[in-house]
Structures are given as C-alpha cells and as structure tokens.
Amino acid sequence: MKIERITAYVLRIPLRMPFRISAGEITAKDGVIFACESADGLVGWGEAAVDAVPFYAHETVGSVLDLAKNALAPIMKSRDWASAAELTDAFDHYRGNNFAKAGLELAFWDLLGKQRGQSCAAMLGGVRGEVETGPSIGIKKTPAETVAVVGEHLALGRRRIKLKVSPGKDTQYIRAVREAYPDVTLMVDANNAYSEQDFAVIASWDAFNLQMIEQPLHEFDIYFHSLLKQRVKTPICLDESIHTEHDLRCAIALRAADIINIKVCRVGGLHKARRLHDICQEYGLANWIGSRVGMGVAVASRLAAASLPNCTLPTDAGLCSMYMSDDIVAPLPVLQQGCMVAVPNKPGLGVDILPDKLAKYTARKVVL
C-alpha cells in the first residue's frame, strides 16, 4: 500500500452535556481526523482521539499535528507498506505518542480493508457480529443525580454500568447506586485518582459487589497496583497503565491486575491492540476494549477490536452518542435500545465520512 497524500482535519464538536472524570471536565470533543489517499485513489480515515489539553491522554491536538507533520507522515509516504505491522514497526522509530500513531495506523487499516473488500474486524480475526456495550457515567454533582442517570440507562436495556469516581465523590455514590439497584452489574473507574494512602478506602468497596475497580492508582504505579490487589477481593482492572506490550508483561509478572482494558488509541492502533489481546489470551487474563468520548471513526475501530475472541467483557464503545451532539460519519455505530451494538461489516472501518459534517466541524485543515 503506497500512500500519496495525507490531510489532517482538526475538529471540534460540542457535547450534549459535560463529561467529568477525576482529571477534569470537557464540554466539547476535540480531535484530529486523518485522510490518507493511496496511489490507486482510495481514501482511508483514522482518528487521533485526543483532546485540546492533556485531559486523559498525554497527547493533545497540537502534539498530534506536530508529530504527524514532522515525523509520522513522512514515514508513511516514504514507501509501499506490506502490512500494518510493518508500518507500526517503522513508527516505533519515534518514542511514545501512541494516539498520533493510532490515528494514521487506523487510516491504513481502513484503506487496506477497502482495497481487499474486507472489514477491519474480519482482517483482525474478530468472531462476533455484535458486542455488548455499557455506559460510562461521568461524575455527577450528587449521588441522587447519579442514581437517576443509572435508572435512565437501565430503562433502555443497558446491563453493565460504569461509574466514574474520584476522592470525595466515590463511596457515597457507589452505595447509593448499589442500594437502588442491588442486582445490576456495576463497576467503577478512578482514572488514576488514588494513591497507596487510599488502600483502605478502595478496599471498602468490596462491600458493593463490583465487577471491577478500573485504574484506581496512578498509571505508573503498576507495582502499587500489585500491592493493592493483595488487599481487595474485587478484581482490579488496568487501563492507563497499559501503553505497551512491556507494560502488560510487567503487570502480568507482578500479578497487578485481574482484567486489562485495551484502548486502541492508547496502545497505538489496531495491530498493537490485537497483540495485547493475544498476550492476555495466552495468560488467561480477561480483557475488554475501552472507549472514550470520540467520533465515529474511532468508535468503529473499537468495535472491530471488541469482536476479538478474548474480549469477554462489555465494551464502552457504541455509546459515545450519549455525549456527542453530532458526528461526521454514517452509519453511526450506536444502539438505541438494549445493550448490543453491531460491529461494522463493510470494507475497512465500515463507516463513511459525511462531507458536510466534516466541513461544519473543521476548525483547521493541514496538508501533511
């Protein structure tokens, strides 16, 4: 596959409502969409699912554009690529910046699928035509408001609920939801908010019969997660801690986690997501595909990854529409009722860019 032209679109789409996690709050979705055109005239699309500031990721819209222009796009256009694995190996000449790498790598997968007439899910080795998804509920002002939002989702047929938590907005909120809905599958996500000083608080959540506690400690604290795991009965899930295969192997060696959340954007794209999935499967470690507020291009890639055989727990993907006021793709991979969402099965990522929406939300266009 020879890439002739690469264009970056900086987008900003307002959210329906603010989304708050322990790191802060966003009211609009910023991101970068790459259009990569091959020598035979096909166009592949990929999303760098970052924000304007380092809200969740270390990277930002600005850093993605800088790296794409000065490092990654020149590599991508330099020669004919035989596979995504070959391309990602070349990208790894430069350190880190997995979100930027993922955006371009996803465009390559989209092109490859369109060229072969295969969906990304099929090329990855996916085994499911639909996957279960559940909402990620941002931190609300009160426990009562949280209970009300959970009730709305349960009424729509959702079965797994994830609550974002942070110090001071945790135990009371979890208790309120559990008392209101004693049988719902419930998990919590702290996004790095706690430290080794908070082990007793985290251990007290064993009383709430949680499916998992996701990323309670700082992302660099794989070792301290291993100590926490000895103190709690609830399964520990690592998310932000797992950027690379090395991170995952360290977590396995230290017995720091029961479950792994693989985010396609955070690990550098679909090829590396599949590699991490395969390692989890090899070691008998449960994994699932995480999501974050984003546009339909990124959602489609997450659903493709979620179709892999070891992804045995519900994903967050497919429910970005609860926060996004609009999108740039069709068909939008969402569900209206229930908890199942179809994995796109058209060639490539399986979604088409809507030119009018792309133009409406583009703040800046850069030819790389």
UniProtKB/TrEMBL annotation:
Superkingdom of origin: Bacteria
Q: One biological process GO term for this chain?
A: menaquinone biosynthetic process
Which keywords appear in this protein's UniProt record, sorted alphabetically?
Lyase, Metal-binding
Q: Which GO terms describe its molecular function?
A: metal ion binding; O-succinylbenzoate synthase activity; racemase and epimerase activity
| InterPro entries associated with the record | Enolase-like_C_sf, Enolase-like_N, Enolase_C-like, Mandelate_racemase_C, Mandelate_racemase_N_dom, OSBS/NAAAR
Q: Required co-factor?
A: a divalent metal cation
Main EC class the enzyme belongs to: lyase
Family matches, as PANTHER family: O-SUCCINYLBENZOATE SYNTHASE-RELATED
* Protein name as annotated: o-succinylbenzoate synthase
**What is the organism field in this record?**
Oligosphaera ethanolica
**UniProt lineage:** Bacteria, Pseudomonadati, Lentisphaerota, Oligosphaeria, Oligosphaerales
